[in-house]
Amino acid sequence: MVVDPVYVPFLPARRDAWQAYERLDARVRRRITPLWTVVPRTGPERPRGDRSAADTDEDPRTFGPWLTRRIDAVLDASSSSVGWADATHLEGLVQAAASGLWRLATQSRLRLVTGPERNHRLQRYTADLALLSGRGLGIRVLLDEPPEGSRSAELLELVDRVRLPPSQLDLLLDLGPVTDTADAGKIALAALDLLAGLLPWRTVVLAAGAFPRTIQPLASGLSLVVPRHDWLVHHLVRSSRPEFRSPLLYGDYSAEHALSANIPSVRRPGPPWGLMRYTAPDAFLVAPALTRGPYRAERVRAVARGIAEAEVFRPGRSEGERWLHACAYGSGSDGTGNAETWIRVGHIQHMSFAVAQLTGGEA
């Protein structure tokens, strides 16, 4: 039976995310249309929407194999899935990335992505690959403030430049990191009113990310409760625009902060802790857990118990819940994971729960 997707997670093309997507229950995965952003390999973190920080001096001897492995992993994870692939961080490396972009266009079911703020020549290049693929193109519009009239003209100019019909174009409205439901809701409604009605888009996605980038230290076993402003904005928009005529899909950044895909793959060692995370109906439970140090395993299990004993915890609902429960009540060092494990588990649990919320539990 063919079912329509209901959820668009914006995922970084990193191992924790693609492994999480692969491990989702098949009934959940068929309701998801992910957007994969290829992360930069080296250099500083890329400012959101700033093209000036793109790499231009990568060594092809190291960049080529790195990109091939990453694209292979995304293709394997999404081999049977429709979705999008955004190579924005590779746009300063078109020649070095040409083979990888060609494979995304010709050997997957993913649709390539461009955006109004990007280089016009590269917009055209991406559109040519999209035309070759026959799957159309995603247009990602960054919305950090309410859009003005000039944004609609800019968007129409891009549509004219890529020379694809609206039936082959997906409008991806990206609010980025949000910390206030009312403010983000105003931006979302303004964008829908100004941009979504310009053309009969194939699909309209409204995405935001509310997972925190960092949190303050907490007492052992305690979790910070962070409102899911991304989900709350979705409800605000749905209640304010019930008559919206185009398919409007809910999108978020899963259980990871919205700027994660701007951080290079090759990084310096991080802090001696990571974040355990759990998605509840209207909030995230987030708690720091040690990645090294004395009594690490016992302290990690205490953090997991704090989540597993919360009233909102749903035992056994997904592999994410099952892992957290096993970690909470296990013994020894095996099964406590590391920072990457906790992100992967968080993605699995979050994406499973988001689909359940959007379908009333009927994936």
TrEMBL record:
<dbReference type="InterPro" id="IPR025683">
    <property type="entry name" value="Protein_beta"/>
</dbReference>
<dbReference type="Pfam" id="PF14350">
    <property type="entry name" value="Beta_protein"/>
</dbReference>
<feature type="compositionally biased region" description="Basic and acidic residues">
    <location>
        <begin position="43"/>
        <end position="54"/>
    </location>
</feature>
<feature type="region of interest" description="Disordered">
    <location>
        <begin position="39"/>
        <end position="61"/>
    </location>
</feature>
<protein>
    <recommendedName>
        <fullName>Beta protein</fullName>
    </recommendedName>
</protein>
